Amino acid sequence: MKRINILTKYSLIWSAVFLISFIILSSIIDVSNEALLVYSAASMGFFLITVIFIYKEVNLPLNKIFNLSGKLKLKEDDFETPDYFDSKISELNNLIDDLDRMKSGSVLNREIFRIINEIHSIAGRTLHELETAKVFKINRNEFMGNVAHELRTPIFAIQLSLETLIDGAINDEKVNMDFLRRAFNQTSRLKELVDDLISISKFETGVKMSKRYFRISNVIQKTAEELRYLADKKNIVINIEQPEDPEVTVFGDEQRLQQVLVNLIDNAIKYTPCNGTIGISRIVKDKEVIVRIEDNGIGIPQKDLKRIFERFYRVDKTRSRDIGGSGLGLSIVKHILEAHSSRINVESDVNKGTVFEFTLKR
Ligand code: ADP
Q1: Considering 169, 230, 279, 298, which has the largest number of Cβ atoms within 10 A of its Cβ?
Q2: Integer Cα distance of 362 and 176 in angstroms
Q3: Separation of 306 CA from ligand 1 center, angstroms?
Q4: Residue nearest to atom 4 of ligand 1 (CA)
């Protein structure tokens, strides 16, 4: 069906009605010529006024809305162009300003006002989504950059050791094992990093937890025993406060919560100098159990406390990389605890020590 402009349609209908009424008046009723002239002039005047009215009230605002709403179109192909988000966001902000101006402008009819309101709210929502997408894109790019950087360091070290061996060191009995060991240690670091990356990506896409009741004391004991050889290397003592009620159970995914303990105790060992002490305790409350891991290590400056749970955030970049951390441990801890509707608290004093505390439902 052919779509025609409302004014064209109105003019056609008006001309037909005028012609028919003119014929009726002049031939059938036979009114005088003067009367016909007055009738024609009055009809023309009425026609012009209604045309201007329709144009101002309907055509003009609809055309304006049509032109403005074109700005709502998003082209997915352009998402990767560097300035796409910024330019689209400013375009949408302008659109919202224009719509605001239209809303507060001269009297509008109710239907058109409603359309403007609707487009205004669609533009607001699109703007919000674009801003979120922009943040995601920045985070993704930053994350990719960090991953590449973290992978490059051990790969480079492995390459260097192997190159040295190939260039002749393989035949030098004094150093060949040393270079092989160095390469091997770096592959362990690479594996740890890749494992952590896989965990992070699983948690961020929402991995399913398999929750049940289990004895928290057993898991604390088991984890501490597994990591004791690391503490022994630095002559660090791990004190586990003996619970009054070792039978107390908590509700959660045992394996994942053990991962939380591994990461926190491992950090406590890493960031505590030789001969230090680590304390692990539980506080049993009515409906929850608080788990506390305390060390008397190097501590974390106040300004960094807020950021240590971010991916790849390290207080002392070179030192913790040397110690061997992936920079993802606490981020994984946070994800696991969030999936248990639990939060982690940290308090720390530089050169005095750090306390991490989290709560589990019992
Ligand atoms: P990493 O693999 O570098 O240890 P994490 O995510 O586990 O990464 O920890 C982030 C940063 O928080 C560490 O680099 C370190 O600077 C700091 N940190 C974590 N635990 C402790 C602790 N017990 N004592 C001092 N600093 C810590």
Answers
A1: 298
A2: 54
A3: 12
A4: 325
